[in-house]
Amino acid sequence: GIVSLLRTMARHPRNKTIQFHACEALGGLAADKTSREAILRSEGIERLLKVLTEHKRDVSIQVAGYQALNVLTEDPSILSKFEILQIAETVLYALKMHPRGAGVQEHGFSVLINLADFPDVKTMIVRDGGIERIIATMKLHPTSCQIQCHGCTVLKNVAISINKKRTIIHSGGVAVVVAALTNFPADVDIQIACYDLFRTVLDQQDSHELSEEIVKVFTMTMKNHQQDAEVLRQAFEAMVHLPQTMENRQLLGQAGVATTVATAVTAHPSHRTLRWFGERLVNQICSYHEVQSVSTV
Predict the structure, then answer these.
(1) CA 229 to chain centre
(2) Phi, psi (5° rounding) for residue 201?
(3) In whole angstroms, what is the distance from residue 219 CA to residue 167 CA?
(4) What is the pLDDT of residue 166?
(5) CB–CB of 240/283 below 8 Å?
(6) For residue 200, what are the contacts with CB-CB under 8 A and spacing of at least 6?
(7) Distances (CA, A) of 3 to 36, 44, 71, 83, 87
(8) Which of 35, 65, 132, 228 fits a disulfide with 23 by CB distance 3.0 to 4.6 angstroms?
(9) CA dihedral for 283, 287, 291, 292, sign (positive or negative)
């Protein structure tokens, strides 16, 4: 059973094969709520963290261990604050140790997302240089769907102040989001995560100016996801939250965005929130740049 598995891990701390398969087994068992609770009662988190620390250079053990931790932290409310901070510290160290380990990064990000509601974890991520490291990881793994999606979500969770938002922008966060939107034009989860981050970071409290690249991917999203109301809503809301400078309005107007938004809104007549953001965006554009054929909005 679970107790026997944890004892085996404790008796053979240096045996990599045992530790790897034990981590995999814990991850599988943790999918069941009753088993997950039994693992937590038996100090399974402590044992996993010890294994991850003692085998910090073994990528396969790291991946298996963080897969298990991802499942075990799905409900962090049952964890103690000490356990949560220990987990976050261990994850951040692993992310630093294995920048090219896609599996480590992917599951490490997932664990950080699970712990996102804890202010101390957000503080730890920022203090440890996590913002810059997450952006660097996204640049290193441009073809990893999960890393791009989870990376955007972690960044959004820590963007809780103007200074942190600016750190994301100045560290190349906007560029990696544009790249993710471009590389995964049909992936709904990535589109939503990217625009959610845009909405959080590029808000009206900052002075960020639009680029032609952002307008291009925004237009591409509207064309590719005409039937995906939630993607469109996230995209519209992100654009609405941009600083309302003359330059931004002009760039959107010149790209014909208002007409494209009107078409998208017409395709979803019963979606009130989508309509509201669409109308607001068109009005913002038209306040600077007179656009015709938007009467349907």
Answers:
(1) 20
(2) -90, -45
(3) 26
(4) 87
(5) no
(6) 156, 159, 165
(7) 12, 9, 18, 19, 21
(8) 65
(9) positive
Residue type, 187: D
pLDDT at 209: 66
Half-sphere exposure of 213 (CA within 13 A, CB side): 10
Residue 155, classified by CB atoms within 10 Å of its CB into exposed (0-12), middle (13-18) or buried (19+), is buried
Model pLDDT, residue 204: 52
Quickly list DSSP for the chain.
-HHHHHHHHHH-TT-HHHHHHHHHHHHHHTTSHHHHHHHHHTTHHHHHHHHHHHTTT-HHHHHHHHHHHHHHTSSGGGS-HHHHHHHHHHHHHHHHH-TT-HHHHHHHHHHHHHTTT-HHHHHHHHHTTHHHHHHHHHHH-TT-HHHHHHHHHHHHHH--SHHHHHHHHHTTHHHHHHHHHHH-TT-HHHHHHHHHHHHHHS-TTS-PPP-HHHHHHHHHHHHHTTT-HHHHHHHHHHHHTS---HHHHHHHHHTTHHHHHHHHHHT-TT-HHHHHHHHHHHHHHHTTS--SS-TT-
Its pTM stands at 0.88
The rounded distance, in Å, linking the Cα atoms of 232 and 222 is 6
Using N-to-C axis directions, what is the helix angle for 188-201 and 162-170, rounded to 10°?
120
How far apart are the C-alpha atoms of 9 and 18, rounded to whole Å?
7
Of 55, 41, 37, 34, whose CA–CA distance to 23 is shortest? 55
The candidate with the shortest Cα–Cα distance to 216, out of 206, 224, 208, 207, is 224
The per-residue pLDDT for 294 is 43
